[in-house]
Amino acid sequence: MIPKWTGDAVKKMHLNEITITELAEFMGISRPWLNSILTGKRYSPGSRTKVMAAIDEYIEVKKNGKTAGPNSD
């Protein structure tokens, strides 16, 4: 069963025109890994918190025109 939060994440990505490739690059993980999390095929502790936080941060980055990822100085 796919967790509800993944649907919420995908919806938020869609509404903010964020592709899975963009988010994966921003998070510093592979696209297939992020896809497997969002489709419920994989789970890692804290994945919900990390993905949702990355989406929120990427939205802010897009608004402000920055290009840095969450792990950048």
Number of domains: 1
Return the CATH class: Mainly Alpha
- Mean pLDDT level: 89
Query: Roughly how many Å is the radius of gyration?
Result: 12 Å
Strand content: under 5%
- Largest beta-sheet characterization: none
Low-pLDDT runs: none
CATH architectural grouping: Orthogonal Bundle
Number of helices: 4
According to CATH, the fold-level topology is: 434 Repressor (Amino-terminal Domain)
Order of helices and strands: HHHH
Q: What structural class do the secondary elements suggest?
A: mainly alpha
Level of helix content?
55-70%
State the separation between the terminal residues, measured CA to CA: 38 Å
Count the E strands: 0
| Rough outline | globular
Primary descriptors:
about 70 residues, 434 Repressor (Amino-terminal Domain), 4 helices, globular
Commentary on this structure:
With 73 residues, the protein is an all-alpha fold. The chain has a single domain (4-62), classed as 434 Repressor (Amino-terminal Domain) (Orthogonal Bundle), CATH 1.10.260. Helices cover 63% and strands 0% of the residues. It has helices at residues 4-15, 20-27, 31-38, 47-64. α1 runs parallel beside α4 and α2 crosses α3. The chain is globular, with a radius of gyration of 12 Å. The model has no long low-confidence stretch (mean pLDDT 89).
Helices and strands in order, then pairings?
Blueprint: H1 4-15, H2 20-27, H3 31-38, H4 47-64
